[in-house]
Each structure stands twice: as C-alpha cells, then as structure tokens.
Amino acid sequence: MTWQKQLLEFEKYLMNSGKSKRTVSAILSDLNVLEKVMASNNIQSVADLSSQHIDTYLLGVAPTTRSRRVYSLKQIVAWGENIRRITKSSRFHKILGEVDRRVNGTTSITILNRKQIEALLKAAEDELNDSSPDWYLLISLLLVGLKVNDIKDLTWGDIVVYPRKKEAYVNVTPERQLRILTNFKTFYSAYQMRKRREDQRIFPGTTARFRFEGLIEAAGVADISAQTFRWTYAKQLLDTGVSNNQIAQLMGVSKRHVYRIRKIKRNNE
Predict the structure, then answer these.
(1) What is the pTM of this model?
(2) Shared domain check, 259 and 166
(3) Which CATH number do you get for residue 13?
C-alpha cells in the first residue's frame, strides 16, 4: 500500500477514535512534512527512518511543535504496526524513544509564582485600551489552563457570570466548566459592552500566538508564553492535591500527560 493510501486509512482511524478535526488536521500536516523527508531520502517505510532523518523532520520548529510532531509520528507507527502496514522494528523504537525523551524530557520550564501573576495582571490592567487585545481577560483564561485555540473558539455563550456570587465560569466543553479566579467579571462586563455582536466569537481576530513582550518586565521573568500559564495552572492543581483524573478533565488532557506534568513539577522543585 502506498504512503498516500496509508494516510487516508489513518485519517479514518483518527476520526473514528474520537479526535477533533483540529487534532486530525495537525497530525496529518505533520505527516506531510515527514513524507517530504522520506521522499528526499528514498525511504519507503517510517520504520526505516534513522535518528538523523527524524532530526530533519523536527528541524527549525518551536518546542511545542517538535513535541507534537513526535506524537504524530508515534501515532501512525502504533496504528501501522497494529494493522501490519508497518513492520515492527526494535531498532526504530529505540530511536523513537531516544527522540521522545530528548524532545519531551523533564527539562526546567517557567512556572509563575503569585507575585508574578499579580504583576502581570496589574500590567495587563494598565494597558487596557480599545485598540489592543484585552490582556486581562486573555491572561485570566490562560490561568485556568485554556489553550490558545480554546480561547480563539470561545463564544459569548461560553462565559457564565453569576452576579450575586461575583463569580465567572468558562464552559470549554459540557464536561469541562472552569471557575475563573481573577477579577474577570468586572473587566468582562466592560469588554462586553464595547465588543459584543450577535453570533460573534468573544475574541475575533485573535492570533494563534500571544506575544507578551510588553508584560514580561512587569512580571520579572525571562520568558513567558501561553504554555507558561498552562504549566502554572497544572502546578497549582498538583499543589492542592487534585487527583490525576480531575487534572486530566480540567486541563483537557490524558492521564499520561498528567504523569509528565508531575515529573516536570518534581524537576522544578
């Protein structure tokens, strides 16, 4: 079977396994990059890839993209071996394991403390204006573990505000309702009055990558990304004794991902 036919079968398998269209699209995009590496080196099967070939596949991309590309490669290898489209190779699994440990290792990452979070929110509040993104709202949502793509897809109906309780919640999925812990309600009400339109997302036109350069100095950290807030949220959950199952549900990840979060927490202590 040709590589293209394998990809078509693999796409059906991914859709039937319950993965979102966005996830399937990202995996297939990664594998199209892998196909170019294989074609340029006259390789017929992923099991014949060397560590040098995989390094080429991972070259020149952001850390989160490298991690996803390894995940995509592992997904098609597991599928291919299960249906005997790809011959099992202990040599290749050793290479893949080494790459996985190198890319997804337990290296130190930035986790914000309370003072840094407060400084960031204060800086975001000071920068509020009609022409810039509402950083206070965006940071508030990132601080409850939302991904950038989660935020981009939010509609007005996904935010629930309880006036008497002075609380606000975000509904990411029917099973995933998250309480927003900042003074979100006050800023959200003002933002709603300025921006709300019928059948419109809350943050239309928000880019896929948030740039925090203007807020970094206020927080007193060397580097901030959207993932910084996600890891900070994960650590807060671990510190309060939340179970693996609850963390997986709140963050929208698998329990395997939670185990990795625990390793990174230990590495940062």
Answers:
(1) 0.60
(2) yes
(3) 1.10.150
Q: What is the largest CA-CA distance in the chain?
A: 66
CA 151, distance to chain mean position in Å, is: 11
SS3 19: coil
Computed on alpha carbons and rounded to an integer, the radius of gyration of the chain in Å comes to 21
The answer to whether residue 91 sits within a structural domain is: yes
Query: Which of 172-181, 207-216, 225-234 is least confident?
Result: 207-216
Q: For the stretch 70-88, what's the b/e string if a residue is b when 16 or more beta carbons lie within 10 angstroms of its beta carbon? A: bbbbebbbebbeeeebbee
Gap between the Cα atoms of 30 and 72, Å rounded: 7
Range of the domain at 120: 114-268
Listed residue (114, 229, 119, 116) closest to 178, CA to CA = 229
Instruction: Output DSSP code: residue 133.
Output: -
Q: Is residue 109 a part of any domain in this protein?
A: no
Tokens of 32: 């199209």
Task: Tell me if 192 is assigned to some domain.
Answer: yes
Burial annotation 146-178 (CB, 10 A radius, 16+ → b, else e): bbbebbbbbeeebbeeeeeeeebebebeeeeeb
Inter-axis angle of helices 226-239 and 255-268, nearest 10: 90
Residue type, 187: F
For residues 167 and 180, what is the distance between their CA atoms, to the nearest angstrom? 7
User: What are the pLDDT digits (tens) for 227-264?
Assistant: 788 888 988 898 889 888 888 888 887 777 777 777 76
**The pair of three-digit structure tokens given for residue 98, joined into one six-digit string:** 């080494």
- Domain check: are 245 and 183 in the same one? yes
Q: Is the separation of the CB atoms in 76 and 12 below 8 Å?
A: no
